[in-house]
Amino acid sequence: MGLFSQKKLSRGLAGEPVDADSSTSFLAEVWDWMKSVVIALFIVLLLHQYGFHLSMVKGSSMQPTIVEGEWLFINKTFRVLGGPRRGDVVVVKEPAGSDNDSPYLVKRVVALAGDEVYIRQGKLYVNGEESHESYTDSPIEDGRFEPYTVEPGHVFVMGDNRHRHASYDSRSFGTVSVDKLEGRAEWIVWPISKWRAL
Fold it and tell me: Which first-to-last residue range defines the signal peptide (predicted)?
């Protein structure tokens, strides 16, 4: 034991003394950065899985409201914060047995649990009243749909494109369990010129 500092010095290439602690502080700084990056990635993954994400539209079933190639802001927390409402644009897990390339569909909720829905003369009726759908540009061209009461915990979804064979929806695969709703599309965010709330 002496009165002098116990720091060990090593010689650099030019014979300059180098503090051995500087390499340890560099490694500590790298380790801190790595921890920050891992934590940030973890938060991003959590938000993507349970909070919000962006999704690109494929197909024409939601025209004229949404067109292929547009990007949507999807809110995944809506089930906790009140659940689906009539008129919501939602992302639905592709029903089993379908031959579509995409694992998800974008559709509009037109009827909720307990609602009776049917189609007559190109018009959609919910609980006996004609549904006024300003987001469509044509009558329903696929013919009649017999009265059907939506079961508890489910919704009836349709595409906004009402031309013949334009939308694969609840008329084909039945009602959708609320658990199969991935999220609610709330904004078109790309291209910028189309930015607007849904």
Answer: none
Give the span between the Cα atoms of 176 and 88, in whole angstroms: 14
- Residue spans of the domains in the chain: they are 9-50, 52-197
Buried b (16+ CB within 10 A) or exposed e, 175-198: bbebebbbbbbbbbeeeeeeeeeb
**pLDDT, tens digit (0-9, with 9 covering 90-100), for 122-136:** 999 999 999 999 999
Instruction: Give dist(CA 123, CA 127) in Å, integer.
Output: 13
**pTM of the model as a whole:** 0.74
Right CATH for 52-197 from 2.10.109.10, 2.30.40.10, 3.40.50.720, 1.10.10.350: 2.10.109.10
Q: How much is the CA Rg of the chain, to the nearest whole Å? A: 28
Residues near 150 by Cβ (< 8 Å), separated by ≥ 6?
111, 112, 113, 114, 115, 116, 117, 156, 175
Tokens of 150: 């939506």
Task: Supply the residues annotated as catalytic.
Answer: 61, 107
